[in-house]
Write a structure and sequence with these properties.
The complex is a heterodimer of chains A (149) and B (138). Chain A has a five-stranded antiparallel beta sheet. Chain A is an alpha+beta fold. Chain A has four helices and five strands. In chain A, a hairpin with a 4-residue loop joins strand 3 and strand 4. Chain B has 138 residues and is α+β, with helices and mostly antiparallel strands. Chain B has one domain: Roll (Thiol Ester Dehydrase, Chain A), CATH 3.10.129.10. Chain B has a five-stranded antiparallel beta sheet, with helices on one face. Chain B is elongated and about 55 Å long. The chains are: A alpha+beta (149), B alpha+beta (138). Chains A and B meet through helix 1, helix 3 and strand 2 of A and helix 1, helix 3 and strand 2 of B. Strand 2 of chain A pairs antiparallel with strand 2 of chain B, so a sheet runs across the interface. Chain B: It comes from Leptospira semungkisensis. Chain B: InterPro entries: Fatty_acid_synthase, HotDog_dom_sf, MaoC-like_dom. Chain B: One of its GO terms (cellular component) is fatty acid synthase complex. Chain B: GO terms for molecular function: fatty acid synthase activity. Chain B: Pfam families: MaoC_dehydratas.
Chain lengths: 149, 138
Amino acid sequence: MAEKGISKDLIGTKLDRYEFDVERGKIKEFCQAIGETNPIYFDIEAAKKAGFEDIPAPPTFPTVIQFWGYPKIWKDMENMGVDTSRILHLKEKYNYVKTLYPGKVSSQGECVNVTVGKMDTMTFKTTIKDAKGDTVIEAEMSIFIRKPE
Amino acid sequence: MSKIEFDKYEIGQELPPLKVDPVTHANLVRYAGASGDFNPIHNDPDFARKTGLDGTIAHGMFVMAQIGRLCTAWADQKQIKEFGVTFKAMTKPGQKLTCSGKIKRKKEENGEKLLTVAVEASDESGEVKASGELVVVC
């Protein structure tokens, strides 16, 4: 097996564009998994009463879109030279342009930064758009790759 | 959650903290299924040990989700403009997290009144697992 490693040449690499259907049931499942109990995430009437159009997706839900919508990310990272068994999450940041509601979204990630050296890191920027093509959320994720002992 | 009013908050003011039940292996398996993040370092202790960890660790995003609960318990989600964290330490099953927040900055920018809150999650020994910022538009 070739020795793994990342390089700055990866900056600018675009991942595949994909679509994902944000379902109310998936929002509910995610909220149950994180211990969220606010009825706005489970009951459409409660959500509407609180001024939402539909059940909103909670702030960290975009991670569901990224992993369930694009399970190929692991393979892509391996192909980029990342030892995925040694990844740790370093940073995650979301800009919320609009509230994320159930419905079809499309998304695409891009590698926007790589550092190599004492600490190998990669940063991906992902834009999530609604069915009309309007940006809903911009996400930025940084990972680092632990060096073997 | 309620509508946050800019004038009602002062720098240094704290959000009501959120105490989280101790993280269990079952929580992480469930979170893996819900989020789709099946990296085995979170659900397979033998695999985790083989990669040099001393057992499974919680998903960073599980920890961030707990801070997210603190944020949405405080503010109307429609007001949340930005939310970001840096992960500082690994969270292991058995640890008990507390999420907290403190008003860090108040500013008016492009006609928006913005409150920035420093947020973090730490365990019972005080080790900070993740810290970052929440920005709400008032």
